[in-house]
Backbone:
C-alpha cells in the first residue's frame, strides 16, 4: 500500500495535513449543512425546530453508539496497517461492514416500530404539536439508519489507511443533495419537518452508495475480500475488544444527554429552540477539535500498531497542543459574530437572548477544557485503552452532567443556563481523569503489541 508521503500535493510534505485537511473540510461541510438545515426548519417556526431537536437527541444516541464500530474499525485496522498486515486488515474491514449493516437494520426497524411511543414516553413535558411533528421525522431517520451506519464504518476503514479524501468528497456530495432536497421539500412543497426528513434520507443514500462503490472497486485503501453474510467472530474479535467499551462509552454519554433533553423538554419551546440553535453553532466552534480527534486515531493507532512507543507518545503530545491552538482560534473568530450568527436562525427575542447567554461561558473555556475532555480519550482509544474511557464517561456523565443539570436546571430553576453550566463541569471532570492517564504509563498495561523504543516513526498509510 502506498504511503501518504507518495501522494500528491501537501501529502508529500506533511502526513498530518494529508489527513487533517480532508477531515476538517468534511466536518465543516457536514456541520454547515446541519446549520443550514436548522435555518431552513426555523423558517417553519419554533415548533419545527424543537421537533427536530427532540428527534436529533434520539438520533445522536443511536448513531454515535453504532459509530463505536467505526471507531473500533479505524483503530484496529490502523494497528494492522502499522504492523504491515494488510490481508488481515481487509478481512476485518469486510466483516465489519457485514456486522454494521445487520445490527443497524435490526435497530432501525425496532426504532421505526416504536418511534411514536418512544417520543411520548421520553418527552411527556413537550407540547403535543411538537411531538406530532417529530414522529414522521423520526420514522424516516430510523428507516435510513443502516445507510448512515454503513457510511460511518466505510469512512473509518478508509481513514485507517490514510485515505481521508474519499469520505470528504462523499460528504460534500451528500450534503449538497441534503440542502437541495430539503430546500425543495420545505420551501416549495411546504412539507415542513417531513421535508427535512426526506432530505436526510436522500443524503444518506448518496453518501452510503458513494463510499461502498469506491471500497468495492478497490480504491478505498484496504483490499475488501468477498463478503459472507454470516459474521466471522474470529476475525471481528480484535475489533470487538475496542468496540464494546467504546460503544458502552458512547451509549452512556449520549444516553446522559438524552436524559438532559428530557429535563429540557419541560422548560418550554423557547428553551428547546435556543438549545437547538446554540448546539448548531457550537458544533461549528468545535470543528477543528473534532477533526483533530478523528485524525489522531489513525496516526497514533498506526504508530502503536507498529510497536513504536516513542512516536505514539509524540503524537499524543502533539495532538493535545494542536487541539488547544485550533480551538483558541475558532473561539476567537466566532465570539465577535455571535449575535449575527444567532440571527441567521430568525429566532424571537427570548430565544435569541437565551441562546447567546448559554454559549458565552463554554466559548471562553473550550480551548482549555475541550481537548482534555474529548481529544485525550480518542488518543487513549487509539492505543486500546477503551475500558478506562468508558468508566470515566459513566461516572462523569451521570454524576456530573445529568446530576448537575437536574440540580442547577430543575432544582435551582436556572433552566437552560443550568444545563450548559453542567456541561462545562462535565468537561472539567473528564479532563481531570483523562490527562493524567494519558501522561502516565498506565495505558501501556496489557499491551499485546511489542514495543520497540528506538523504532523510527511510522508514516500513516505505510
Residues:
Amino acid at each position: 500500500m502506498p504511503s501518504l508521503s507518495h501522494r500528491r500535493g501537501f501529502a508529500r510534505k506533511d502526513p498530518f495535513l494529508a489527513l487533517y485537511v480532508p477531515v476538517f473540510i468534511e466536518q465543516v461541510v457536514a456541520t454547515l449543512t446541519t446549520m443550514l438545515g436548522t435555518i431552513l426548519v426555523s423558517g417553519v417556526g419554533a415548533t419545527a425546530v424543537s421537533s427536530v431537536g427532540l428527534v436529533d437527541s434520539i438520533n445522536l444516541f443511536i448513531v454515535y453508539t453504532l459509530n463505536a464500530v467505526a471507531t473500533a474499525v479505524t483503530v484496529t485496522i490502523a494497528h494492522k496497517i502499522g504492523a504491515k498486515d494488510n490481508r488481515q486488515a481487509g478481512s476485518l474491514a469486510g466483516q465489519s461492514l457485514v456486522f454494521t449493516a445487520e445490527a443497524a437494520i435490526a435497530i432501525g426497524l425496532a426504532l421505526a416500530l416504536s418511534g411514536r411511543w418512544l417520543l411520548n414516553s421520553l418527552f411527556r413535558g413537550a407540547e403535543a404539536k411538537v411531538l406530532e411533528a417529530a414522529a414522521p421525522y423520526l420514522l424516516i431517520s430510523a428507516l435510513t439508519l443502516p445507510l448512515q451506519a454503513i457510511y460511518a464504518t466505510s469512512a473509518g476503514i478508509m481513514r485507517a489507511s490514510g485515505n481521508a479524501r474519499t469520505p470528504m468528497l462523499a460528504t460534500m456530495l451528500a450534503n449538497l443533495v441534503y440542502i437541495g432536497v430539503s430546500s425543495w421539500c420545505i420551501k416549495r412543497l411546504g412539507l415542513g419537518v417531513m421535508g427535512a426528513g426526506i432530505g436526510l434520507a436522500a443524503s444518506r443514500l448518496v453518501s452510503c452508495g458513494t463510499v461502498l462503490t469506491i471500497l468495492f472497486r478497490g480504491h478505498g485503501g484496504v483490499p475488501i475480500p468477498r463478503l459472507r453474510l454470516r459474521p466471522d467472530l474470529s476475525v471481528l474479535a480484535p475489533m470487538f475488544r475496542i468496540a464494546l467499551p467504546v460503544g458502552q462509552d458512547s451509549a452512556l454519554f449520549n444516553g446522559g444527554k438524552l436524559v438532559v433533553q428530557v429535563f429540557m423538554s419541560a422548560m418550554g419551546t423557547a428553551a428547546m429552540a435556543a438549545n437547538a440553535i446554540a448546539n448548531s453553532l457550537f458544533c461549528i466552534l468545535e470543528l477543528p477539535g473534532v477533526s483533530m480527534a478523528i485524525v489522531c486515531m489513525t496516526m497514533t493507532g498506526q504508530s502503536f500498531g507498529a510497536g513504536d512507543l516513542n512516536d505514539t507518545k509524540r503524537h499524543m503530545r502533539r495532538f493535545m497542543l494542536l487541539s488547544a491552538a485550533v480551538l483558541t482560534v475558532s473561539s476567537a473568530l466566532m465570539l465577535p459574530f455571535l449575535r449575527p450568527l444567532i440571527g441567521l436562525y430568525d429566532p424571537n427575542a427570548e430565544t435569541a437572548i437565551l441562546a447567546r447567554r448559554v454559549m458565552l461561558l463554554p466559548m471562553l473555556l473550550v480551548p482549555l477544557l475541550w481537548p482534555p475532555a474529548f481529544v485525550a480519550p480518542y488518543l487513549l482509544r487509539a492505543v486500546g485503552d477503551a475500558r478506562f474511557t468508558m468508566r470515566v464517561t459513566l461516572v462523569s456523565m451521570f454524576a456530573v452532567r445529568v446530576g448537575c443539570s437536574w440540580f442547577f436546571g430543575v432544582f435551582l430553576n436556572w433552566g437552560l443556563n443550568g444545563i450548559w453550566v453542567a456541561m462545562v463541569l462535565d468537561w472539567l471532570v473528564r479532563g481531570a481523569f483523562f490527562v493524567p492517564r494519558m501522561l502516565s504509563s498506565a495505558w501501556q498495561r496489557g499491551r499485546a503489541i511489542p514495543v520497540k523504543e528506538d523504532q523510527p516513526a511510522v508514516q500513516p498509510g505505510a
In short: The chain has a mean pLDDT of 84. The two ends are 7 Å apart (CA to CA). The chain is about 80% helix and 0% strand.
